[in-house]
Task: structure prediction
Amino acid sequence: MNAPNFETCSEEELWRYVAWHLEGADIQSILVGGAVVAIYTEGLYRSGDLDMVPDDFQKSKIPGVMESIGFMPGKSRHYRNPDCKHLFIEFPPGPVELGDEYRIIPDEILVEGRTIRLLSPTDCVKDRLAAYIHWKRRACYDQALLVCRRQKTRVDLGNVGKWCEREGGSAAFKELLEHLAETNV
Result:
């Protein structure tokens, strides 16, 4: 796979490149967090980093793969490419969980013969709402709303509503529905 232009690449371009190389080393990973929002909003939101949760059994291979594609270890779990000043990669520990929901089935995309993974639009909305419900991060609510608006047919609002209820976030879900109704989503 050809490298993206590191000086100008989007979160999606960088994710595809890094995840493709990790997959080639038998390291499965799931993209989570703000970079997923950037992808599902087609760049309307910009993240600044990519959070890729790796398969715990293959974590020891990550430094070698990242170095082979030009990324050097930085602080803690971070990797940077010297030409990519606007984005960095982080490998938070797994497993991927959304509040108390721990059986997450990611979306899969085939890229040049390899399968790479990211949160589904529905799970991306839950991920952002979790930060709003539990830590009152209004920006994360706004990101959830933006994903709902851009991915209208791919977000299962019934699933989100049940999840919000279990998380103690019924008010957040009601607010989300009100904002979506204002824009006829």
Observations:
- The longest strand covers residues 49-54.
